[in-house]
Automatic annotation (TrEMBL):
UniProt superkingdom: Bacteria
Gene3D superfamilies: Beta Polymerase, domain 2 (3.30.460.10)
Provenance organism: Priestia megaterium
Official protein name in the record: GrpB family protein
Pfam families named in the record: GrpB
Length: 172
């Protein structure tokens, strides 16, 4: 059974945890990481979240990630292969379904990279959208209390709509 989906209130400790983890990652990936970003709900001040730090690293080529598997493993990150996400390399720190950190590696400035940045920045800038998302997450955490996949899938239409809205505003 999955660990219960619980949305915690925002804490500035998430930003501090990111800064600490970013230093570790820079030491390991300094010559491969173009950019390291704090993404996901823990990166948006005022937004409730599952207490899992989402970190995104941009690289020139996803083929470079093979050489990072062992060094990342040495600091607690396990490489998890996801066939359904061919443009992402994923690592988890912590136990299955109850990890503390999720590391997403994408080709820098790919569509996936840009969508994550757009979504995060839109939530940071638009309080009413952030509040809608927060309320949705609370409702879905109750509905899918022990079903993380269901919870994540149920958020997807909202996330997609916000990304499309953000793209539309950029092109205005």
């Amino acid at each position: 059974m999955d660990k219960q989906v619980i949305i915690e209130e925002y804490t500035s400790n998430w930003a501090l945890s990111f800064q600490e983890e970013e230093k570790l990652l820079k030491d390991i990936m300094s010559n491969k990481a173009i950019s390291i970003e704090h993404i996901g709900s823990t990166s948006v001040k005022g937004l409730g979240a599952k207490p899992i730090l989402d970190i995104m690293v941009g690289v020139c080529n996803l083929g470079e990630v093979v050489g990072l598997i062992e060094p990342l493993n040495n600091i607690g990150y396990e490489h998890i292969f996801h066939e359904e996400f061919p443009n992402r390399r994923f690592f988890r720190k912590g136990l299955w379904r109850s990890g503390t950190h999720h590391l997403h590696i994408y080709k820098y400035e790919s569509e996936e990279w840009n969508n994550n940045i757009l979504f995060r920045n839109y939530l940071r800038k638009h309080l009413h959208i952030r509040n809608q998302y927060n309320q949705l997450k609370i409702e879905l955490a109750q509905k899918y209390s022990f079903d993380r996949v269901g919870y994540t899938e149920a958020k997807a239409p909202f996330i997609t709509a916000v990304i499309q809205k953000a793209k539309g505003e950029i092109n205005v």
